[in-house]
Design a protein that fits this description.
The complex is a heterodimer of chains A (294) and B (269). Chain A has 294 residues and is mostly helical. Chain A has a domain at 52-112 and 155-291: MetI-like fold (Orthogonal Bundle), CATH 1.10.3720. Chain A has helices at residues 2-34, 52-58, 61-92, 97-105, 108-111, 114-124, 131-138, 155-181, 184-192, 197-208, 210-225, 229-234, 246-256, 260-284, and strands at 37-39, 46-48. Chain B folds into two domains: 1-46, no CATH class; 58-267, MetI-like fold. Helix content of chain B is 77%, strand content 0%. The chains are: A mainly alpha (294), B mainly alpha (269). The interface between A and B is large, with 87 and 87 residues.
Chain lengths: 294, 269
C-alpha cells in the first residue's frame, strides 16, 4: 500500500509545490539575501555590503515617518474596525428588516478593487464637487485650502477613512461569526439571571469574543501593513511623506529608484516587524477568559 | 432602542450605497454639470462619457483582466485541489510542516517578495507577459485555495475513498472521478473568492506588467493619476463604473459563497 501511494502523493503535490517554491518561497529567501547587497541601477551587478543597508535604514528619517504613519493608522483604524465591527455584528444577526439590509450591503466595499475604492474616495474628497467639503461646510468648518488629500495634516486621516470604509464589512462578518459561536445556553442563562443590554455585553459577550478579537487584531496588523493601492493612488504618499505607507516607500525605493538591495532591506525589516507584532498579539491575548481574567 | 437601530443601519447603508449611486449619477453628466450641480440628477444623459472612459482604460485591459482571471482559475483549481486532497487524506512524514509552509503564504504581503520576483521574471523573460502574470497569480493564490479545499476534503468520509479504490480505481482515477466532483461546492467558494480578488488585483500586475499589456485596475489607476494634468472627471466616473459593475453582479449572485470563503479564511486561519 505504502509503496504504491508514495509516488501518487509526490505526483499530486508536485505542481503546487513547484509553483509555490519557485515563485513564493524562493523569492522570499532571495529578499533576505538581496538585503545584504547593493545593486547599481538596472544592471545585474551586485556588491556585498553586509549590514550597510540596515544601518542606512536605521538612520532613514523617511522610513521612520512611514513607521509612525503606520502606527497611527493601526491604532485609529484598529479602534474603529473592532468597535464598529462588534456593533455592526450585533445589528446584523437576527431576521429583522434592518439586519437583513445590513447583511446585504455591508460587504459591498470588500468586493471592490482597492483601485476603485481609492478613486471613489478621491471623488468624495474632491474640493470642487466632492460631498465631504459640502458636508463639512454645513457644519461651519472650513475644509483645508489645498484639499483633504493635499494637506499634510489631513492626508493620512483621509486615506485611513477610505481604508476603514473598505475594511469594516470584513470585521463585521468576523464578529458575526464570533457571536454565532457563543453557545446558546450561555445566552439563556444570562437571560434568566436578568443580564441585559450593556451589562450583558460587557460581562458576557465581550469576554467570550476573546478568540475572535485576537484574530481581528492580527488582521488589522496585517491589513495595515499591506496598505498600498489606496495610498499610491490617492496621495502617492504625500504631501511631504505625511501619508507614506510601508509598501509605498518600499515601492519607491525599489522600483522608482531601482535600489533593489535597499528595498529588500526595507522588506526584511517590514517582515520582522510583522512577525514581532503578530507574536505580540498572541502574547497579549494568550489567556482565555475561561481560565480567569487578569 | 429600535429607533437607534434603524438609524444606525440606515446610516451605514447610506454610507455604502450612497457613494455608488452618486458615481453612477455623475457618470452620465457633462463636465459642466458635474461642477455646477454635483448633487442633482443629470439633466441630459452624456453617454459618450462611457465611450471615452472605455477608450481610455482600453478594451485591451478589460480583455486582459478576463484572461488573467479565467486562466488563473483553470490552473489554480485542479492544482490546488490535488494538493489539498493529499493534505486532507494521505498522512506522510513531515505533512504538518509542508502544510504549514504552504499556508505561510497567507500571512505576509506579496509585495515583500516583489523585488526578487521581478528580477527572476526578467531573467526568465516573463516580464510583461500575460502567461507570466497568470503563473504568479496561481502561485500566490495557492495558500488560500489549498487551505479552504483541505477543509472540504476532510469532510468527505474515508469509506468513500476506500470503496472507490476497492472497485479497482487507481488513487488518481478515484480523485478525478469521485473526489474532485464531490468538492464542487468548495471549488465554487474558492473559485468565486479568487475570481474577485484576481479581477481586482493591482500590486503584482503593477510590477509584472508594463506598457501595452495592462489589466483593468492598472488602466483605471493610470487614468486616475492622469487627472492632475488632463481633467476628464466624468470619463473617469464612467470608467470607475465599468470596473465596478462586474464584481457587483457577482456579489449579488454569490453573496453567500463569498461570505463563506471570507469566514473560512478568517476564523479558522
Amino acid at each position: 500500500m505504502r509503496r504504491r501511494t508514495l509516488p501518487f502523493i509526490l505526483g499530486f503535490l508536485a505542481p503546487a509545490a513547484m509553483l509555490y517554491v519557485g515563485l513564493v518561497l524562493w523569492p522570499l529567501i532571495q529578499t533576505f539575501r538581496l538585503s545584504l547587497f547593493t545593486t547599481s541601477g538596472l544592471s545585474s551587478k551586485v556588491n556585498y555590503v553586509g549590514a550597510k543597508n540596515f544601518e542606512r535604514l536605521a538612520a532613514d528619517e523617511a522610513y521612520r515617518q512611514t513607521l509612525s504613519n503606520g502606527l497611527w493608522m493601526l491604532v485609529v483604524s484598529g479602534v474603529f474596525l473592532i468597535a464598529g465591527g462588534v456593533a455592526l455584528a450585533h445589528l446584523s444577526v437576527g431576521n429583522q428588516r434592518t439586519a437583513r439590509a445590513l447583511r446585504a450591503t455591508i460587504l459591498i466595499p470588500q468586493v471592490m478593487s482597492l483601485v476603485v475604492v481609492a478613486i471613489l474616495w478621491m471623488f468624495l474628497f474632491n474640493p470642487s464637487f466632492g460631498p465631504v467639503d459640502a458636508i463639512v461646510r454645513l457644519m461651519k468648518i472650513e475644509p483645508p485650502r489645498s484639499g483633504w488629500l493635499g494637506d499634510p495634516g489631513t492626508a493620512l486621516p483621509s486615506v485611513t477613512a477610505a481604508f476603514i470604509w473598505y475594511a469594516l464589512g470584513f470585521y463585521a462578518l468576523l464578529f458575526t461569526a464570533g457571536l454565532r459561536q457563543i453557545p446558546e445556553e450561555i445566552g439563556e442563562a444570562a437571560e434568566l439571571d436578568g443580564a441585559r443590554g450593556w451589562f450583558r455585553f460587557r460581562k458576557i459577550t465581550w469576554p467570550l469574543l476573546w478568540s475572535v478579537k485576537r484574530i481581528a487584531v492580527t488582521y488589522v496588523v496585517i491589513n495595515v501593513m499591506n496598505v498600498f493601492a489606496l495610498v499610491q493612488i490617492m496621495t502617492t504618499g504625500g504631501p511631504d511623506r505625511s501619508s507614506e505607507s510601508l509598501l509605498t516607500y518600499l515601492y519607491e525605493q525599489g522600483f522608482r529608484n531601482s535600489q533593489f538591495g535597499y528595498a529588500a532591506a526595507i522588506a526584511v525589516a517590514n517582515f520582522l516587524l510583522a512577525m514581532i507584532l503578530s507574536l505580540g498579539v498572541l502574547f497579549w491575548f494568550r489567556r482565555s477568559p475561561e481560565v480567569g481574567r487578569r | 432602542m429600535k429607533f437607534l437601530r434603524v438609524a444606525i443601519v440606515a446610516l451605514m447603508v447610506l454610507a455604502i450605497i450612497g457613494p455608488l449611486v452618486w458615481v453612477a449619477m455623475n457618470s452620465v453628466k457633462t463636465n459642466t454639470e458635474l461642477f455646477g450641480s454635483p448633487w442633482s440628477p443629470p439633466k441630459v444623459l452624456a453617454w459618450d462619457n462611457f465611450s471615452r472612459g472605455w477608450n481610455e482604460i482600453g478594451a485591451r485591459s478589460f480583455v486582459n483582466s478576463m484572461i488573467a482571471t479565467v486562466a488563473t482559475l483553470v490552473f489554480l483549481l485542479p492544482i490546488g485541489a490535488m494538493a489539498a486532497y493529499i493534505f486532507a487524506k494521505f498522512p506522510f512524514p513531515g505533512r504538518g510542516t509542508v502544510y504549514a509552509l504552504f499556508l505561510g503564504g497567507m500571512m505576509f504581503p506579496n509585495f515583500l517578495v516583489a523585488i526578487p520576483l521581478v528580477l527572476l521574471y526578467r531573467d526568465l523573460g516573463l516580464l510583461n507577459t500575460m502567461h507570466g502574470l497568470v503563473l504568479a497569480y496561481v502561485a500566490y493564490s495557492l495558500s488560500f485555495t489549498i487551505f479552504v479545499l483541505t477543509g472540504f476534503f476532510q469532510a468527505i468520509p474515508d469509506e468513500l475513498r476506500e470503496a472507490a479504490e476497492i472497485d479497482g480505481g487507481s488513487p488518481s482515477r478515484t480523485f478525478w472521478t469521485v473526489m474532485f466532483p464531490l468538492v464542487r461546492p468548495g471549488l465554487v467558494v474558492v473559485g468565486i473568492f479568487n475570481a474577485i480578488g484576481l479581477w481586482n488585483e493591482y500590486p503584482l500586475a503593477m510590477v509584472l506588467l508594463s506598457g501595452e499589456n495592462s489589466t483593468l485596475p492598472l488602466g483605471i489607476a493610470s487614468m486616475a493619476m492622469a487627472q492632475n494634468y488632463r481633467a476628464d472627471w466624468t470619463g473617469l466616473f464612467a470608467a470607475t463604473l465599468i470596473a465596478m459593475v462586474p464584481v457587483l453582479i457577482v456579489y449579488l449572485k454569490f453573496r453567500e459563497q463569498l461570505q463563506e470563503a471570507m469566514v473560512a479564511g478568517a476564523v479558522k486561519g
